[in-house]
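Marked as duplicate of an earlier ticket. Keeping the data here for the record.
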Amino acid sequence: MLLLAEAAIEDFKTIREIAYKSWPSTYGSILSKEQIDYMLDLFYSEETLLENLNQKGHRFLLVNEGEVCLGFASYEHNYLNQNCTRLHKIYLLPEAQGKGAGKLLIDAVENLAKENQSTTISLNVNKFNKAISFYKKTGFEVVSEEEILLEHGYKMEDYKMEKKL
């Protein structure tokens, strides 16, 4: 049975492990290994996760099956001071995909967004990420394209997707 839990600082190691296990299969055919390594270090350092939690208001949910954590989501209410909940991250272990864990996380974030009076959930997704079809099935629509430049000449080529609540 799949169960949700709110993550705490003590869970950052697990969150990092899931990211490091899921990114190569998610982005391996899209980004270079060097860019994947750079972005994992950038987004999942202890310092960044603490800053996201303590200063930016991000919250983390874990989805567990028994003693095993299958994935996580990171979200923020009142994104950009609007009635919007931002889904910053959602990743599952490769072997957990197709078990309903992603849908459980999306539904939980949606329920929390509604409780917070959000009218929209937004997210960014790489334009070539297979998860786009999953997001569309759960009610998200592409609203724009965005290119985000990073250091070392790396860039993120994303769709911005939204779901009206």
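See parent ticket for discussion. The first strand starts at residue 2 and ends at 6.
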